[in-house]
Write a structure and sequence with these properties.
The complex is a heterodimer. By secondary structure, chain A is mainly alpha-helical. Helices cover about 45% and strands about 5% of the residues of chain A. Chain A has helices at about 10-20, 25-30, 35-50, 55-65, 85-95, 105-115, 135-145, 155-160, 180-195, 200-210, 230-240, 250-260, 280-290, 305-315, and strands at about 70, 75, 270, 275, 300, 305. Chain B is an alpha/beta fold. The chains are: A mainly alpha, B alpha/beta.
């Protein structure tokens, strides 16, 4: 087996369930504003490990809805925080996990997101107007899950994303922005959801992405940077969506992810022997899911949800 | 979240940590309270500053500051207090950036402030801040994004920003962010044809020199190699789209018939065109890059034949965007004929404003070609050819007649193309010489770049000339890719894919070599079909489909193919054998739904059903990518109690494949209960399934 061992699934489940309760440490407080994202990371990981039932669904859903701003139709990162698309997507995704989209005023939420599309097809994150391709992905993903894509100009949204394509085949945050694996995931995901992957030079981008694999087997986010477990998702899901994932060494990546586990206390860190957190725990398990690691549910690379959840949303009557 | 070492909590730290946490909790709660109460006093603002200093990621605090700013601004009419208020905000941003130079909230707050246009921007202060931050971290993309915004906002010319990238690169070659910005600026300057940037050749020659310096100084740094790849693509691609192949090709003679005897008589001198009983002839046009705009006025057809429907050109690429390398039209011939008759068809493509590539360049290389169609009388007692009376086997028996298929490529005669090519070729040859000299022979980037240079030269050299010129380049490239598999085993499958393409190139560029893989498929009671066998060659992907447009039976069995992308161009294909490959899902076969002539498919011994992750899920058309209406496609199946969630891929594929013969044994999915019944339900035209008659 080697020194990397197996996936310590039970430890990670316990870590997620306990960290959820530790709201008052400095580290948690500094992340208070993204707690809703944290809920998505933690709960999706539990579902991937077949342990979603370890939490009380009603309690979770109640809390999610307490982050809802009925005036705007958006969700804030925590109770009392301003609405923003970043948290709105996480809320919708969590409700999908529990198959409880019925608790939403779907039209109101969809209108909030749709209302943030700009003239050039881009999306702002909130009323303050910051534009970033991350928000394009978020908007398209949210609206798609709610079956409300008709509320926006999809072609213009696609056109804007294509305008962020760089000469190395990758994508940046805005036109002219440097290629970065996180942005690439957002753009590739957005193009996947809208059936527009033909805009991508898959061989060119595929090569740029597969060159993210470092000597230690981990993946980095752009050239000359260190490997980080979160790129196991951003890079890997992008490669899968463009059918070039066979261009990386999956075994080496698996070993890298497993090496980033805290076997004693549970959780996964960005790099071996660093502090663990929910974010990297999710991305590590999600990466393993995409590589068909035994015991982990398969994920949909575009919607970043378990495959059975996505299939249920789009294939059932 | 990133870069913190794993340390167990020490008890003596606990008390201090708890105090620190309590302070932050109170501060955050207080700021939120002020925000909801719309309290914008100096004191309240001060608290938000304190918070953002500790935690620049507290986004609601930035929103609060914007609201406070707008609120307090209403009281000012003089420019002085307004400027002072703006400066206060700019200072908060600077303090926040000190804490976290990558804070989205901080950077956007600054951008938002400038966009309010309430005070003159202090050019020195802004660029000074950027210089400081980019010096501390030359790769901070937030900084670079802000720099691009600022340059545009302040009207700084691209030429000056280009100089800045040069400064950064001179400081340190390892600056991907600077090279990236350089590529953007150069592209803009060239497109705008600014002073000093009129000649693509001059600019790219200079850039090649610059990047070569970088690569020779530090070949282990990646930035230069990626920039070099961009330069290479700029120097080897023709400026305008070109037609590189067609079916039928110039001088081809096709025989259309559904009468057995007549077919046998005629096949010695012409190619039998398998057609559906409806007398349909496909015309395929293959371009060197995706184009759009083919229509009856941009592509002119001239013939005495009467065509039944309006001529409609459709793109064959799997997803529709309007652009495709490969276009086809299907001529429906409705002529009545009393005996053997020959008709010629002329296809011409003049210069066109309609036909454009993705970059907007227009088609400007007029071509035309002519082919013959022989029509044979059906007669009264005609017995239709039934190709599927017995299952088709993959053995063949007759040698190939070389005059069957003219291997000529369309010749490109424009002198513009020749001149451009000459410079391209010289430039790349220089590069090849340089790289052959590079001392560090074991660098994978050196070998990879060399291989790419060789293949680019092959492409340039063979444009408008015989393809055989490519052979030597292909052979050298093949050697390099084999070396690369050993040198860089993590990327083995990338090199194998590249190698596959080069091998395909090598095998099909030389008629003598290619002939060894060609034969004639002879079936009892039917017409002969031309047969190409490319088995056991370790192909992982298909390329150069434009050289296979005439193929009717294709045997690609016993390779390592994961995808059949490219085969959609083969509009003559009747039988396809991809058994014993690595096809892992039905979605990987969508290309085949474009081949209306396809009747026989051998998929046996692949990996369909063995993987939970489908890597072509978003490449194909599906409800997940909104290219297929779920209710429409699946309603019928749901009525028949077919499990749509489990079999949607099979349903979407087989719906469009009107096969007479299918082999699927040896795939995990085939051993599922009721799968065979499902297949028979989905393909009503099926006669043979895994060798057994289906009725």
């Amino acid at each position: 087996m080697g020194d990397e061992g197996d996936l310590a699934a039970d430890k990670h489940v316990r870590y997620i369930v306990t960290v959820e309760k530790k709201k008052d440490s400095f580290e948690s407080l500094v992340m208070e504003h993204i707690r809703l994202n944290g809920a998505y990371w933690g709960l999706t990981t539990l579902d991937l490990l077949h342990k979603l039932q370890a939490v009380d669904a009603a309690e979770v859903i109640d809390w999610i809805m307490s982050c809802y701003d009925p005036e705007s139709g958006g969700f804030g990162g925590n109770v009392g925080h301003d609405p923003h698309v970043l948290y709105t997507l996480s809320a919708v995704q969590v409700l999908c996990l529990f198959d409880r989209l019925d608790v939403l005023d779907v039209d109101k939420v969809a209108d909030y997101v749709a209302g943030l599309q700009n003239e050039d097809g881009s999306f702002s994150g909130d009323i303050w107007g910051e534009v970033d391709t991350r928000f394009s992905y978020i908007a398209l993903c949210t609206l798609s899950l709610l079956h409300c894509l008709h509320k926006i100009d999809v072609q213009k949204a696609v056109d804007f994303i294509v305008s962020c394509k760089n000469l190395d085949g990758g994508f940046g945050a805005m036109p002219g922005g440097e290629s970065h694996a996180g942005q690439i995931f957002c753009c590739v995901g957005a193009l996947a959801i809208t059936g527009s992957l033909h805009h991508i030079d898959r061989d060119l981008l595929g090569w740029w992405l597969c060159e993210r694999q470092c000597r230690d087997g981990g993946l980095n986010g752009r050239p000359e940077k260190l490997a980080d477990v979160c790129y196991s998702w951003w890079v890997l899901s992008s490669l899968i969506m463009i059918d070039r994932v066979h261009w990386i060494d999956k075994e080496k990546l698996t070993k890298f992810i497993l090496n980033c586990q805290d076997i004693e206390n549970g959780g996964i860190s960005d790099r071996p022997d660093n502090a663990v957190d929910i974010y990297h725990t999710y991305f590590g398990v999600a990466g393993l899911s995409l590589m068909e690691y035994p015991g982990v549910k398969p994920m949909d690379p575009a919607y970043a949800l378990p495959l059975d959840v996505v299939n249920r949303i789009f294939l059932r009557k | 979240m990133h870069g913190r070492p794993r340390r167990p909590a020490k008890p003596e730290d606990a008390a201090a940590a708890a105090t620190k946490a309590a302070k932050l909790r109170d501060l955050q709660a207080q700021v939120l309270r002020n925000h909801h109460a719309r309290t914008y006093t100096k004191e309240a603002l001060g608290l938000s500053f304190k918070l953002l200093e500790i935690n620049p990621e507290a986004y609601t605090a930035w929103n609060y500051r914007k609201l406070a700013f707008q609120h307090n601004l209403r009281e000012f009419s003089d420019p002085e207090p307004i400027k002072s208020a703006v400066d206060d905000e700019l200072r908060v941003v600077e303090v926040a950036l000190r804490q976290n130079p990558k804070s989205y909230g901080a950077w956007y707050h600054r951008k938002w402030l400038l966009n309010q246009r309430l005070a003159l921007v202090d050019f020195k202060r802004e660029f000074g801040l950027l210089d400081k931050l980019l010096k501390a971290d030359a790769r901070n993309f937030h900084g670079w994004n802000y720099r691009r915004f600022l340059a545009r906002f302040m009207g700084v010319p691209d030429e000056e920003e280009l100089k800045y990238t040069m400064d950064k690169i001179s400081d340190n070659f390892s600056n991907y962010s600077a090279w990236h910005n350089r590529s953007i600026l150069l592209s803009n300057l060239l497109v705008q044809q600014r002073n000093g940037f009129e000649s693509k050749q001059k600019i790219f020659s200079e850039e090649f020199e610059l990047v070569t310096q970088a690569l020779f100084t530090d070949p282990s740094d990646q930035s230069g190699w990626f920039y070099h790849l961009w330069l290479l693509s700029q120097t080897s691609t023709p400026a305008n789209p070109q037609l590189i192949a067609s079916w039928p090709c110039n001088g081809a003679k096709l025989c259309l018939s559904s009468v057995r005897e007549k077919v046998e008589q005629n096949t010695l001198s012409s190619m039998w065109c398998y057609s559906l009983k409806e007398m349909i002839v496909p015309i395929v046009l293959y371009f060197n890059e995706p184009v759009k705009g083919l229509n009856p006025s941009s592509v002119k057809l001239k013939s005495d034949l009467v065509f039944g429907m309006d001529i409609h050109w459709r793109p064959l690429s799997v997803t529709d965007s309007g652009y495709s390398n490969c276009w086809a039209t299907h001529l429906e011939i409705t002529n009545e004929c009393s005996s053997l008759q020959q008709f010629s068809v002329e296809v011409s493509i003049p210069c066109s404003d309609d036909i454009v590539s993705r970059s907007g360049s227009r088609y400007n290389c007029p071509v035309h070609f002519t082919f013959l169609i022989e029509l044979v009388n059906r007669g009264d007692t005609a017995e239709d050819i039934n190709l599927f009376h017995d299952p088709i086997s993959w053995d063949c028996s007759e040698p190939f007649q070389s005059h069957y298929i003219p291997f000529d490529q369309l010749k490109i005669t424009s002198s513009l193309v020749q001149e451009d090519s000459k410079w391209h070729f010289e430039r790349l040859s220089d590069e090849i010489d340089l790289f052959r000299e590079l001392p560090d022979e074991n660098s994978k980037f050196v070998k990879l770049t060399l291989a790419r240079l060789l293949l680019a030269c092959a492409a340039i050299k063979s444009r408008g000339r015989s393809l055989v010129e490519r052979k030597a380049y292909c052979e050298e490239a093949l050697g390099l890719f084999s070396d690369l598999v050993h040198l860089d085993p993590s990327h083995k499958h990338y090199y194998e894919d590249e190698r596959s393409l080069v091998l395909m190139d090598k095998l099909t560029c030389d008629m003598e070599t290619f002939m060894k893989h060609c034969s004639v498929q002879v079936q009892p009671n039917s017409a002969p079909l031309n047969h190409v066998r490319l088995c056991r060659l370790s192909f992982t992907r298909i390329g150069f489909a434009e050289r296979l447009l005439w193929v009717q039976v294709l045997d690609l069995s016993h390779n390592s193919l994961r995808s059949v992308e490219g085969l959609e161009a083969l509009q003559q294909l009747v039988c396809l054998n991809i058994s014993n490959n690595r096809i892992s899902s039905f979605t990987a076969l969508e290309s085949l739904t474009k081949i209306i002539s396809l009747k026989v498919l051998d998929l046996s011994y692949n990996d369909i059903g063995a993987h939970s992750i489908d890597t072509t899920r978003y490449i194909c058309s599906s409800p997940f990518s909104h290219k297929v209406e779920a209710c429409e496609s699946f309603e019928e199946c749901q009525k028949k109690n077919i499990n749509v969630e489990e079999y949607w891929e099979a349903i979407l594929l087989f719906k469009y494949l009107k096969l007479a013969q299918l082999d699927i044994k040896g795939n995990a999915v085939a051993s599922k209960e009721n799968f065979r019944t499902l297949v028979m339900t989905l393909i009503p035209s099926l006669k043979w399934l895994d060798g057994e008659c289906v009725h």
